[in-house]
Amino acid sequence: MVPYLIVLSFYVTSFLLATVLSTPMCSELVVPVQITANNAVQSLRNSRASKILDPDLDTTGLLALLSSGINLPFTSLIEGSYDIAGRYCEPEVDVPSRRNTLQLLAHPATYDRNYWSGGGSPGFGFDGDMYSWVSYASLQGYPTFAFDRLGNGNSSHPNGITVVQCPAQAATVHEMILLARNGALPFPRNFDKIIFVGESLGSLVGNYLNVNYPQDADATILAGFAKDWVTVIPGFTFTAGLLPALGVQPSRYGNLDPSYLEASIQSGVEFLLFYGPNTYYDRTFILQDYANRGIITLGEAASGALVPTALSYKGPVLVIDGEQDTVFCGFLALEFLGPGNCGSGPTSKPALTNIIYPSASNYTSYIVPNSGHCWAHQTNAQMGFKYSHDWLSGLGF
C-alpha cells in the first residue's frame, strides 16, 4: 500500500497549484480495496482445455479456453485485497454544482488510464488535448478519476483466470464508489454524485456494476458497447493475434502468468479498433497506441462474452458507439469482411441495446460518425465528448 500521508501531501500540493494554473491538476493515487465477488466457477481454471495454458499457447488453444469459459455460472466466491492505481484530476473550471460530482473512467482492454487523455497525462497526450476526455470534462467542471482496472497498468495483477473477471472488476469499482462517497482517503472529499464512464471492456465492467450494484452510479455512459458481441470473439482473437503477454513482450510482461494476453498483430488491432486510416484517424497516434499497448486476461474475455441485463438499474444510460465499430457492430471481426456498421436511428445497434436497461430513467444512444470502436482516439472524438457532456448537463449533472 502507498502511505496515505504521501498521497495526501501530493494531492494538497497539486490542489494549491490548481489555483494559479489553467489546466486540470492531477495526482497519481492508489486506492486499496477489499472485494468479494461471484466470479465464473473455477472449472474455467480446471477445464481440460486449460491444461494447455502455457507461454507457448497459440490462438487455437486460446479459443478452446475461451469456449470453455463462456456460459459458466457465476457462483465461485472470490475474496481479496488489491491496489487500484489511477489519476485523479481537479477541473480547471470551477462549476459549484459539479464540485462533488465524480466521473469514474474505466479504460478498454489493452489500454490503461492514459486512454482517457490521449495516451499521456492531460495536456501531454497526442496532439495536446484533442483526444482527452479528461481535459474536456475539466473544462465543464467535472473532477475525474481515470483508473487502471484490476490486472492492468499499475494496479494489482492477481490470477488472470480465476480472479480478474468482470464481476471482480465491478466489485473493485463498487468499493471505490463507497470510498469516494464517504470522502475516505485517498479521495479528497465526499462525492455525492458518481458518473461511471466506460469504453469497451470498461463498459462491460460498468454493465456488471449496474447489474450487481444498481444503486452505485447516478448516471452511466457506455462507449464502445452493445448488447451482444459473442460472435466477434473468435475473429477478434485471430485478427489481433492474442497470445500470452509474457511471450510477446517478455521484457514488459515476463512476470505475469500466461492468462494475461497481449495483441501481436498491429494491422489486425488497427482494423478492429479504428476506421479510416489517415482520414479519420492519425496513424502516427495509433502506432503509438500499439507500441504502448496493454493486456487483457482470459478471465475477462470469457466472463465478458455474454452481456447480462441490468434489470434493477434506474439511473440514466447513454450508449455511444463509433459508426463503424467492428467489435460491437461487426459480425466475425475478420479483415476481409470489412468494418462494422452500427446502423442508424431506432434500429441501430446502440439503440436496440435499450433492451438490457428496461428500468433506466433515461436511455439514449448516439453514433459518432466516421469512427471505429475506440472513437475517442479518432478525429471526431470531440463530437463524442461534447454529446456526452451535453447529455449529462441536460439531465442536471
TrEMBL record:
Gene3D superfamilies: alpha/beta hydrolase. It holds the Pfam family Abhydrolase_6. Residues 1-22 form the signal peptide. Keywords: Signal. The keyword Cell division does not apply. Residues 122-377 form the AB hydrolase-1 domain. The keyword Signal applies. This is AB hydrolase-1 domain-containing protein.
